[in-house]
Amino acid sequence: MAVAAEHSRLQWAKASLRTYERSLDDMEKFFALAGEGGVGATDGQHWHIAVTAKIKATGLDLRKDVPTAWKTLRHINPCLSAVVQGDRWVYTVADEQELEPWLKETLHFHDTSSTSRDMFPIRNFTGRAALHVLLQTKELYLLAPHTHLDGIGAYTAMNNLVQALADTASVTDSPKLGGDEAQHLIPPLNVLADIPAATDAHRSTFKSMLGSWMAGFAGVKLQQDGDTKQPHGDPRILYAPFGVSETKCIIARCKELGFTVTAAVQAAVSIALRKQVKSTATIQSAVTIHDVRKWIDKTKYPATGLVGALAVPVPAVFTLADDFVETAHLAKQKYREPELTDLLRILPRFWGNEMVAIMTSPPAGASAPSSLGLSSFGIMDTYLKPSYQGAAGSNTQVEVEDAWLGITLYSPDILLHLWTLQGAIKLQCVYNEAYFKKEAVAALLEETRDELLQGLGLVN
Question: N or C: where does the chain have the smaller number of CB atoms within 10 Å of the terminal CB?
């Protein structure tokens, strides 16, 4: 592969008076194909990212001021309003012909007492980012296909939106759009991080990794309550936060024992699953998620613009020991392994080529294994502040009282989300109701909490 030629195809270029286009890179190809996945007809709704912030706004009228903030976000992150057509991204400039239809299509107000968690999932057929404003509960609910957002990107976009909302009182003119925003279209990961071409040795490593990973699904694995070939139901979420005092103890104990909170939670959920399914296996296949924004030159591409698919999944086989602390240390090593070699930087090629080929033309009789995965978003206050002030001289303020992220699952998998916000660790399970009973997922989530606290020696 000629990397220079590839980079040329991946740069945004003006295709007409009103449009800009570029090709999809490897991770985007994977996420675009995955978005069409799930079981049965999903209408492209699989793996959509939703991020919500519950706010308290002073000096603002949400119905009046959010449209201005939404247009400002389009200026900051225009890629959220692009669409994928085949293997191409297409962005239409926000001129008079585009702006009103876009607002009507993507911005929605709800005068209901239902919360964002009650309304999850909201379907999004626009092919780009949409915003739902819950007027009674004061929540901003932003969602988009995974091609447009990853986890950290979702919180980054929400940060940009909330700051734009705080600034609306001082805005005298509408945000400058009409094509000016196209300067903020950024290239994808392959360009931003200069992802090298894969060699034959890398492909051999990919093949070996995939074989070990697939074999690992014979270890500790999920047990569905329904036929995994039956059409999907609705994605559901269960939420189990820790208190601030509990969080302080968990963080201190993990530090004392020499592993991360992520490794500890991975150990806890693996052990909890093994007990729930009454398994004696000592391995569990999953995927570790690695945010790679650190590879990107922030002087050229500011962090506020980095909202797209900039996380790399790594197939992983975790080892379960009899002892929690040992299992957590082994999990820590598994998370670190890709960072210690050049493998992580090459893996986007695996997802965009080998994995896309398998998904497009699966081997006869093959089916995707169900998995229990953990996504850790770290300390979300790094991306979403507790409070936002308007411009100097303005009395507007927006406080973030809570925030959460979900992903729409239309497959027989379970995803455990982990993050820390305003001093408290949050745990959340996402699953599909067609394949798992709520009671079973709730029990797994509660047992994960118990295993974490017991394994760290924080309860008797």
Answer: C
Residue 76's nearest CA partner among 142, 7, 10, 145 is 142
Q: List strand residue ranges (DSSP E) for 311-450, in order.
A: 311-319, 372-379, 387-389, 397-407, 414-421, 424-432
Range of the domain at 375: 199-381+411-455
Least confident of 156-165, 289-298, 361-370, 391-400: 361-370
Enumerate residues 6+ apart whose C-beta is below 8 A from 136.
Answer: 111, 112, 113
386, part of any domain: no
For residue 177, pLDDT beyond 60: yes
The alpha carbon of residue 325 and the mean position of all alpha carbons in its chain are separated, in whole angstroms, by 28
Q: Is residue 401 part of a domain?
A: no
- Stretch 42-55: mean pLDDT: 92
Say what the pTM is: 0.96
Beta strands in 234-384, from DSSP E residues, in sequence order: 235-239, 283-291, 311-319, 372-379
pLDDT of 337-350, one tens digit each? 998 988 899 999 99
Domain final residue pick, 145, 167, 190: 190
- Model pLDDT for residues 58-89, shown as the tens digit of each residue: 999 999 999 999 999 999 999 999 999 999 99
Domain CATH number, residue 116: 3.30.559.10
Distance of CA 144 to the CA centre of its chain: 10
Average confidence (pLDDT) over 312-336: 96
* Amino acid of residue 259: F
Decide if 240 contacts 446 (C-beta within 8 A).
yes
- Nearest Cα residue to 266 out of 220, 297, 303: 220
Residue-averaged pLDDT of the chain: 93
3-state class of 263 per DSSP? helix
Sheet architecture: strand order including 139-145: 107-110, 130-134, 139-145, 48-58, 397-407, 387-389
Quick one: 62 and 139 in the same domain? Answer: yes
Q: 44's torsion region: left (phi>0), alpha (psi -120 to 50) or beta?
A: left
459 membership: H or E segment, kind and range: none
Looking at the fold, whether 244 and 141 belong to one and the same domain comes out as no
Residues ≥6 apart with Cβ < 8 Å to 357: none
Q: 366: pLDDT confidence band, cut at 50, 70 and 90?
A: low
Identify the H or E element spanning 141.
strand 139-145
